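Supplementary Methods, section 5.1.

A reviewer requested that the exact input to the structure prediction be made available. We therefore reproduce it here, unchanged from the version used in the analyses.
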Amino acid sequence: QVQVVESGGGLVQPGGSLRLSCAASGSIFRLAAMGWYRQVPGKERELVATINSDDYTNYADSVKGRFTISRDHPKNTVYLQMNNLKPEDTAVYYCNVMVGRGYWGQGTQVTVSS
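The structure derived from this sequence is encoded token-by-token as follows.
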């Protein structure tokens, strides 16, 4: 079994910053890609950013230049630094880790509002 735990969400004003963390633990033999997705009520879950085992990154166009994904390999942890946040970034953010198959965390709420 693989456990995925996110942290770092909260309420922030437009233009502010937040840093999300996601730690994977359990039966991890080879952790491949890790990534962040987000979802708002009534819409499908969408990709925010991913990072693979070679630290190659991929971003949604809507967050390029504002968000940065990074990874601590020994700790099986992935981070999402979110700067210049906008109200449209409000969503539940989910972490996904690939260990043979994908595992999801429980999600963390990010609210951008004045």
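The chain has no helices and eleven strands. These observations are discussed further in the main text.
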